[in-house]
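Q: What would this complex look like in 3D?
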Amino acid sequence: QKEVEQDPGPLSVPEGAIVSLNCTYSNSAFQYFMWYRQYSRKGPELLMYTYSSGNKEDGRFTAQVDKSSKYISLFIRDSQPSDSATYLCAMSNTGYSSASKIIFGSGTRLSIRP
Amino acid sequence: GAVVSQHPSRVICKSGTSVKIECRSLDFQATTMFWYRQFPKQSLMLMATSNEGSKATYEQGVEKDKFLINHASLTLSTLTVTSAHPEDSSFYICSAVKSPGGTNEKLFFGSGTQLSVL
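A: Here is my prediction, written as structure tokens for the whole assembly.
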């Protein structure tokens, strides 16, 4: 079993829809949770980060962590074609930048149809 | 946000040649940089940790003589794929830590290099 599981998609939704992206994990020691957005042939860009359980909102994006279920989500409201990208979840038990300890999901490809 | 520049963005080379990829932190000093490779539809796999002024630390299974890493300054790390073969074809990405140890410590990624070995 992988430490982090993420549905690879692709996920295709119409413009304006609410998008829900999810990851599950097995290591209960993870405390730092991140979402990265990666456009084709580009490096990942940090989108959201949260510590432990709870919600965090930033504009159209909401990150949610449920440690009891070992489940994290990223919600995108009013989705736009420019949101089309691969979204990678990532997590760590030592910090947001401890690259040697960050475990990445395989990414979900998202396509927003105009 | 912080800028990490990676060059070249794409390189095609013949089998047996060596290829150098550069990773620069443009607006901050990075004592630590990281190198990943990513196969299509797969996640990032950490290859090595590059430390300024000292030897790189390689992940298990990564050949250090095959993937030479040099971190000669606080803003530049290079990855050289030596004697490249078709199986080395992949997307290589670097990252750098900004503000290590501070409350704003974050990891920023370069734009990646697509290596194709013929």
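A: To summarize the key features: The longest strand of chain B covers residues 90-98. Chain B touches chain A through 31 residues (CB under 8 Å).
Q: Very helpful, thank you.
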